[in-house]
Design brief:
- This protein is mainly α.
- Helices cover about 55% and strands about 5% of the residues.
- The chain has a two-stranded antiparallel sheet. It has a two-stranded antiparallel sheet with strand order 3-4.
- It is elongated, with a radius of gyration of 24 Å.
- It starts with 12 loop residues before the first strand and ends with a helix.
- The structure holds zinc ion.
- The site of zinc ion has 8 residues, from helix 1.
Amino acid sequence: MNCESCKINEIEVIEKNDDEQQPYLLCKECHKKLVTLSLRPLEWYNLAVIHSPHESYLYDDFYDDGIACAAEEDVIEAEKYPCPTLIDVCNDMNDLLDYCMTKYFVYEEELRHFAMFDKEDLNNEIKNRFENTNNMLIKSRLIEICGKCLGRVCQEWIIKLWENIDMELLVSISNATAYALPENEGIQLVLDALDKISYKELPHIAYVCLYKFNSSEVLKWIEKKVKSPVKDQLGRLAAVSKPDWDIISRWIDMGRPYSLVALDTLYNIMPPAYKSEVHEELNPKLLNPISVELMTAKLKEYESIDSVPRVKRIVKSIIINWNKII
Ligand SMILES: [Zn+2]
């Protein structure tokens, strides 16, 4: 095996990183560049393919897509060793997979190119890479690509991943499950796994694991699980799980903690001020609304019996933004 960075010289140095099981294997020259943050773009890229761009010395405090921005030594002939571009890699399945490992996020722009490759070949290559790395970030990215690009084709593999699940991969596997398995079967696997999470962590983890299902089944689960103190993430999750006025109205009638989730749900249907991929993808709305006057009256009535700042603030915001909610 050669140095993971230049791919030419022999390995002379093993440098620890955040992932104890997968240190950097480098020649002396590349090791010096790694620790002085002065890798050339292609050398950075070769390491990011194996270790991800989130690993020590490689992240965006130091490199902008492979270009050193905090180098402690001169970066020599950087322009002669550029990172491959999407155009360079998009016609080769393995090159494109490598490329996707080096990105902080992968988008439709990159993923659509996988459509030209045989789905079984892609599934097999992803499984093969998954088995041959210990790096959880790389594993996670492979699962993401699999779910988004292969859908039902990777169903069997995703089900296998649920057996003896590594909880570090719970979010990635849950998201891929939303693409790969029939809705109810998939949600049940996620809900069973969430049973093992403490309530303190549950709202956040449930949100990231379940939002992609975009399913009203999730509302039934929220109703079973919610307790005080109510975390905002449950309302965020409910907002993208096809809430209708019936359930909102019922939760308001049930009082706390359900009423607080109902208000959070309406509030979170509104697009946030920042760019939200989730809102763009799922475009949540309140289903089966009744008249704005009647819905406003219901909220005002609730506010009159639970007039704490949180309730007043949210009710005020909802009633001037019904056009963004229904
Ligand atoms: Zn080297």
